[in-house]
Amino acid sequence: MDIQTGFFYLFAAVLLFSAFKVVTARNPVHAVLYLMLTFSQASGLWFLLEAEFLAITLVLVYLGAVMVLFLFVVMMLDINVDTLRAGFWKHFPLAATLGAVVAFEMAAVLMSGFRLSQAPQVVGPAAQVANAQALGVLLYTEYLMPIQIAAAILLVAMVAAIALTLRERKDSKAINPAIQVRVKARDRLELVKVAVTQPAPAPAAPEAAAEEKKQ
Length: 215
Hints:
Helix content is about 70%, strand content about 0%. By secondary structure, it is mainly alpha-helical.
């Protein structure tokens, strides 16, 4: 067994273990952390298959953005685990049936094998460069205009999402800057005249003072 095969079995074993823990973990935060470990091992398998672009995209997009967002959302929400697990056995027969069907299909594909007369061969300039470089050259030469259109659409969507989030709400404490500029000192400060000296309180009666001492 060579080094590449050893790394494949290592990544596959850790991936299966972490994927199993995602389903069986009682703590939602632990489940998200195990899912992040699953994605990292899948990225390692992509590297072994010489798909560097897909591996890096998996790490940057899912581990660097999506899963971190999921982790913060799960940590901020007050999730009742008992309520989530209440319907586990109710839906277990359907889930087990679907899992068995998927496992049977995968086993049928693996046992029958991929019937290829010969291995596909890469011909042309892409044969001398890495797939990430070949994909970059292809995207920014022949598909430059669709890439620019997609970037503009994503920018518009991002600006629209920010505008929808920051629209005026009743519970918002934001103040209009135009109102702040027009504010005058007399509108915020009120001077109250207070006498410099106050008359001394009248002395208490001797009987009242004696009663206060007794109390």
